[in-house]
Amino acid sequence: MTGEPDRIELCEHELREIAGYAADGARRALSIFERALPADTRPRDAIGAAYDFAGGGRRTGALREAAWAAYKAAQEAASPAAADAARAASHAAAAAYLHPKASAHQVKHILGAAAHAARAEELACEEDPSVVGGTLEWARHHAPPAVTAVLGRLPAAPPGGGRVGAFIRELDVALRS
User: What b/e string do you get for 31-50 counting C-beta neighbours within 10 Å, with b at 16 or more?
Assistant: First the structure.
């Protein structure tokens, strides 16, 4: 037994702020997906569903379905950059379903959209570090109070996850300081 709580307090207002932040982050990379697959609206729809929830809409099956549809779009994308842009959109819609578990895995749900958007932009710009730095800087400076408050109740981001995992850990450290 670790003595750590297994649940955290999490209110609907915080979920809405987190979903809006995730949607803003994912929207930064949406054009990368849309240039590759202009007729596929699944990532745009997922971001729209996240904004609807953030603006006061209900958590419905349609919101969850939008997240899964964007995830499927990522699996079908031929370009790695487009795939990460779609994953960012999927994370944005899924942010509304953050669990009140005191688990490091939940950090990925909060910061995953921004991290995948940063990776999509990095891949689209042939790994230009200045592009990724700008995206991560944006994510640091635009995090609403709910993001930092909820992160403060969770363990640090978990190891692993490749480049996206490294971005999540970088954001996590920056937002906690």
Answer: ebbbebbeebebbbbbbbbb
Question: Do residues 153 and 102 make contact, with C-beta atoms less than 8 angstroms apart?
Answer: yes
Alpha-carbon gap, residue 133 to 144, rounded angstroms: 19
- The answer for residues whose C-beta is within 8 angstroms of residue 20's C-beta and 6 or more apart is 50, 51, 54, 55, 144
pTM, to two decimals = 0.94
Distance (Å) of CA 139 to CA 31, 76, 136, 154: 18, 27, 5, 19
Alpha carbon 129 to its chain centroid, in Å, reads 20
Task: Encode pLDDT of 24-74 as tens digits.
Answer: 999 999 999 999 999 999 999 999 999 999 999 999 999 999 999 999 999
Coil, helix or strand at residue 6: coil
**Taking a C-beta distance cutoff of 8 angstroms, is the pair 47, 30 a contact?**
yes
Please give the DSSP secondary-structure letter assigned to residue 132. Answer: H
State the helix-helix crossing angle for 12-27 and 145-153, rounded to 10 degrees.
110
User: Distance from CA of residue 120 to its chain's centroid?
Assistant: 12
Compute, in degrees rounded to 10, the torsion defined by CA atoms 126, 129, 131, 136.
130
| One-letter amino acid of 159 | P
